[in-house]
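Troubleshooting log. The previous structure file for this entry was overwritten by mistake, so regenerating from the original sequence record. Sequence copied from the archived sheet and checked twice against the printout by T.R.
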Amino acid sequence: MTTPFYVSPQQAMADRAEYARKGIARGRSVVVLQYTDGILFVAENPSRALHKVSEIYDRIAFAAVGKYNEFENLRIGGVRYADLRGYTYDRTDVTARGLANVYAQTLGTIFSSAGEKPYEVELIVAEVGETPEDDQIYRLPHDGSIVHEHGSVAIGGNADQIGSHMSQRHQDGMTLGAALRLAVESLTRDSNGSERELTADQLEVAVLDRTRPQRRKFKRIVGRPLARLLEGDTTAAEDDEEEPGGNGTGKPGGSAAGGGASED
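Regenerated output below.
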């Protein structure tokens, strides 16, 4: 009689975690930083169709790395949760903390389920407040745990080195231009210690700007304003150029969907 192959629960969970981490590490990084007027999102992403950063609700945005079809499903679910809660109760009842709890339950259930593979994703949910002290940034790894971040955070490939470089140089009260240049400088650092060059065309940049007069605080920074900010032009932030067809001021959830695609 053949003895059944046995794997301890601890080893099974460790294997699932390693599988998810390897998938996430293959993705290009996303960094999130607080600056004086809000929260900045910068991703290494040459695609203009498959967004890593998106609006969820009035003051809430979402960033992710890993398998695109997996985190896109989570993003769409988050938009539906926010719309339903805002409609049923009040728009102010939609918070980043509540959304992070929903994502944590979903990721945790999938991670612990023996019948399906864990999601190869890592998420950030952020909400801009009336003051920098009111800003909320939550990082959600593949296993559904929640980490409350402050100042700056990096996810994706080489996140430890990028995050360490960024946290050592990030300061409260940074201007948008200074925060953007620090984010790009951090993203150019490879795991072997060398540095690369990233151009505006290779970046996806967005902000939650607390000073915007509109109810929705999310805005993408593309084209000429982005190039000028990278060059150190402090007036570029005043331009309100949006990505054509993007969801900077359109309805939340306007980014492209694509089943089965992998983020690279």
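Residues 32-223 form a domain with the Glutamine Phosphoribosylpyrophosphate, subunit 1, domain 1 fold (CATH 3.60.20.10). Archived copy saved in two places this time.
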